[in-house]
Amino acid sequence: MNQTTDFTPASKADRLVVLLEGIHPSALEALTRDGYTRIKTYEKALSGQALLDAISDAHFLGIRSRTQLTAEVLQHATQLAAIGCYCIGTNQVDLVQATRQGIPVFNAPFSNTRSVAELVLAQIIMLMRGIPQKNAILHRGGWTKSAADSYEARGKTLGIVGYGHIGKQVGVLAEHLGMTVIFYDTTAQLTIGNARQMDTLDELLAGSDVVTLHVPQTPETENLIGVSQLATMKRGSHLINASRGTVVDIDALAAALESRHLHGAAIDVFPVEPQGNDALFTSPLIHFDNVILTPHIGGSTLEAQINIGKEVSAKLVRYSNNGTTTSAVNFPEMAIPEMRGGSRMLHIHKNVPGVLAKVNDRLSDASINITAQYLSTFDTIGYAVIDVDRSDIQAVVEQMRLIPETIHCRLLN
Ligand code: NAI
């Protein structure tokens, strides 16, 4: 595709930003603070013709998880320079098509890390004190004042499976409670505090009073915790899963709770989750008073929403202002230094041999001197950022657009 008609206006004030789905006002604030004033906001997700109309002339588009940016929809958005998913996932965007159109897609994968970690910390304390079952008994009119099966977290061992962003935060918080932290991860990790990495999952399971899971959803983590792993856990220990529903075999967990091998569990994510707030939730775990069930809200806090608004807007602004694509999910990632005079060209092209030579030839033919050049490729596309010593280069930008492999060529000055 050679989109010679598209052009992102040079002035920020002329670039149209469309924000759908009631994105948190922190997003708007971040954009306006940086000089973006042409911003249209919509409170709800749009679909069909309403969506096409809303995005047809947008240069930057912000969505959350409900807006479906299919290939057909994206093809109508001929002016689009970048998409911001103001959420964690990007499944709602046809990333292959976005890449094909030279549109980087940004999201906010770590804005809710702390929210998950705090919930897990609370669950550790609640489970170790036996609060879920006591709470349930009182709700039914009972009264069980007793210290039986009620423990402090201090001095106990927390086993973290998946020592990534969330796992590390949980480890730090748990150490502040006086817990001993061990973890298991398939990759070598920089240890925070006094945490110790275990060589095997079984070693971790056998040594922990509470096991908490923070792995991604992959074929390898499907039913990572099943019958045999639950049997390896200490008798009377607890399991927490706020990662992905596929990681735990729920029937096996129900059996381990039924036999009292496990003393309790806290589960935030499920193999099958209701599709909306009106849908029915069902699980073998609903019968257990000693299980804390939450509706996949580990990361759902106001602070996370504020952070997401700021983080994604900052990524859009960086790309719009200077071409930086760090953490784009479908695009060559480059952190580009600020411009120092002259002009900058963002050239997005098909990833085939010889394109850069053609670009440089055009510049050389126009006697334009390159002051800096950055190139990265990802899958089917290449991304070149070229700084030159002049600002009157609109004619050569038009030449760039005529190179058959060009997808986009944007000028910043
Ligand atoms: P991350 O990518 O920073 O960390 C994941 C860690 O798991 C990595 O260190 C990786 O090496 C490790 N890992 C991968 N496969 C493994 C295996 N088979 N065994 C042991 N370790 C393995 O991810 P992050 O941000 O910490 O998120 C963790 C999980 O939490 C993800 O599944 C994410 O989807 C979920 N999540 C859930 C939320 C909720 O609302 N409940 C909110 C945010 C994230």
Descriptive report:
With 413 residues, the protein is α/β, with parallel strands linked by helices. The protein has 3 domains: 1-111 and 302-322, Rossmann fold (3-Layer(aba) Sandwich), CATH 3.40.50.720; 113-293, NAD(P)-binding Rossmann-like Domain (Rossmann fold), CATH 3.40.50.720; 332-413, ACT domain (Alpha-Beta Plaits, 2-Layer Sandwich), CATH 3.30.70. It is built from 13 helices and 16 strands. It has helices at 25-33, 48-55, 71-76, 95-100, 113-129, 131-139, 165-176, 201-207, 227-232, 250-258, 302-322, 355-365, 394-402; strands at 17-19, 39-41, 60-63, 82-85, 105-106, 157-161, 180-184, 196-197, 210-213, 237-241, 262-267, 291-293, 343-350, 370-378, 381-388, 406-412. The strands form 3 sheets. A 7-stranded parallel sheet has the order 8-7-6-9-10-11-12, with helices on both faces. α1 runs parallel beside α11 (302-322) and α5 crosses α7 (165-176). The protein is elongated. The relative contact order is 0.12. The model is unreliable at 1-6 (pLDDT under 50). The structure holds 1,4-dihydronicotinamide adenine dinucleotide (NAI).
